[in-house]
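In the design runs reported in the main text, the only information available to the sequence generator was the tokenized backbone. The following block is the verbatim input for one such run; it is reproduced so that readers can re-run the procedure and compare outputs position by position.
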């Protein structure tokens, strides 16, 4: 089940959606994959320094976890092919022009961007404008 790989079609079909939740990134140096399940992470990644977990902020706060930064989750509605070229670069470029950082996580069907929670509205506007400008081509 392949997604879209053509960059113009991808950009025209972004359909970004903002999650109502705020997320944080945690790290657990001595942890292994599967640890931290009680925090209900939406993503995890094993690095040589330890386990990174992306969890809802309210869960992290209740568990007394420490973190740096709070992020809004913008999910792209377009089903992008895992081998598509240029989507991440185009989005990162558009956001970076406005000084907005983005941490991108690719799922099988969709790409997800974590941006500073204070900039989510602006990031959504930029993504919508990016899609609209590509639709007019």
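Verbatim output:
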């Amino acid at each position: 089940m392949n997604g879209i790989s053509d960059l113009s079609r991808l950009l025209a079909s972004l359909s970004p959606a903002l999650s109502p939740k705020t997320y944080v990134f945690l790290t657990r140096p001595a942890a292994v994959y599967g640890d931290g399940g009680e925090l209900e992470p939406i993503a995890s990644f094993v690095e040589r320094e330890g386990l990174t977990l992306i969890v809802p902020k309210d869960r992290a706060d209740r568990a007394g976890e420490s973190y740096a930064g709070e992020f809004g989750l913008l999910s792209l509605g377009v089903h992008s092919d895992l081998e598509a070229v240029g989507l991440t670069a185009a989005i990162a470029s558009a956001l970076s022009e406005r000084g907005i950082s983005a941490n991108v996580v690719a799922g099988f069907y969709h790409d997800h961007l974590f941006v500073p929670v204070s900039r989510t509205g602006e990031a959504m506007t930029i993504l919508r404008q990016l899609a609209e400008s590509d639709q007019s081509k």
